[in-house]
Here is the input.
Amino acid sequence: MEYSQFYEEYGEPFVGRKKKRVQEFLKSMELQYDEGVEYTVNLVTQDGEIAATGSLQHNVLKCVAVDDRYQGMGLSSRVVTLLMNRAMEKGSSHLFVFTKPKNIAMFSDLGFFPIIKTNDVLFMENTRDGIRNYVESLERPSKEVQTVGAIVANCNPFTNGHRYLIETAASQCDVLHLFVLSEDRSTFPAKVRYELVKKGVQGLDNVILHKTSDYLISSAVFPTYFIKEQSRAEEINCELDLRIFCEYFAKELGISKRFVGTEPFCQVTSAYNRVMKKICGEYGIEVVEIPRKKQNDVEISASKVRACMKAGDYESIREIVPPTTMEFLLSDEGKKIAEKLAQQD
Here is the structure.
């Protein structure tokens, strides 16, 4: 069969029987369909069989696979090119791909450069030294310091608990790098979360605030779709993220301590903290767990704030957030977020 005899199918994304067809094809390739994909392209034979497929989620290429019978015909290049063109049309020029380590040559030929590789996952981007240039651009202290710490947090929204964690960590460092997640998949938009943190840490002069960009803790791009052992998926995701932090952020910024709050509520975060101790230990980075701040003998959490917003209980919220967060929650923008929460199941 010639290259030109394959025709293209597009889905935004596929649904129903067409989606099931993609799922079954990926399963035959020992891949999992990722429910987060936003766009899929198939290359199909004249008999209607999928020969190759690939998907896009924002600026991340996912679920790229070619039937073994059609290897060596340039189908992977064609799929990736179509996906890249789609991403460009949507305004995304900086692209990423998660793939199996054995595929490094194929994606290198397509203009991607490795960021990090584990036994299970290869993470690449289409910008040479993109991550190095980003980390080098981050603000750092103007003079040499001894102890440098870091916190990576979502702050959805910023609470007195976050302030306590940051304040406690800052007291144990000469400089504390505070990374606020840039991914826009939380109840509060990334821009709002960043501004609330910025206002909430005022007065802590040794705290340097950063955005994570696409490089730290991005649930949209965690590559569970090709992890055969799904029971290990979360652990593998955590390892990938933590090695990126240690190899690039910690080395460049001289970070020797990473601070986290104890996690009694979220099993995923609790598991992440356990893996963090193991991976960071390999790089000589100490993980310091700080007990959560309590209000009336109950740990303060952002999830509690969101639950109270949904219930309209702003008096309870007032007890666990700083005035700057409270001011936003009572604003028109904050009320719109509360209305969306109230409409959710």
About this structure: The chain is about 40% helix and 20% strand. The first strand starts at residue 7 and ends at 11. Residues 223-231 have pLDDT under 50 and may be disordered. Residues 233-253 form the longest helix (21 residues).
